[in-house]
Amino acid sequence: MARRKAFTKKRRASFLEKLEKSGNVSAASREAGVNRQYMYERRADDPEFAAAWDAAEQTFLDAAASEEARRALMGDVRTRRRTSTIRFADGSTKTEEITEEVLVKSDRLLAHMLDRRHPEFRAAAAKRELSGPGGRAIPLQQIPEDATEHEAANAYLALVTPQ
Questions:
Q1: Where exactly are the structural domains of the chain?
Q2: Percentage of the chain exceeding pLDDT 70
């Protein structure tokens, strides 16, 4: 049977430091030279160590949230390469490779962030009814064909607004 290495203060500090930077228990355990399962056992048996573990994970999550916000709001500079061909009046062409740096923001990441932090907005949007009253189809045939845009809008609102 393999002998466990002593869980020294140095190993503890190494584990917590790596966990704080990576958020990954397996990687932090490897860095500290200690079995991952042993770390979980140690956490269960030592409230002080469990509190330090939680603090390290929270530090990682705070850093990840800051990076997420930076990418969503400020963007990242990325290099984009494209080829441009110029055609001259005499029929000749000149092709050149263009390299440019562009700022890329992530609307999708921003939407994900907002959904996670404010789920009530998503829930309210999901509850909007796009059908007619009682879930039935919207009876558009009740809007006269010769109605103006304003009349059609009012007729539609009258049909879908609960009485």
A1: 9-73, 75-128, 130-163
A2: 81
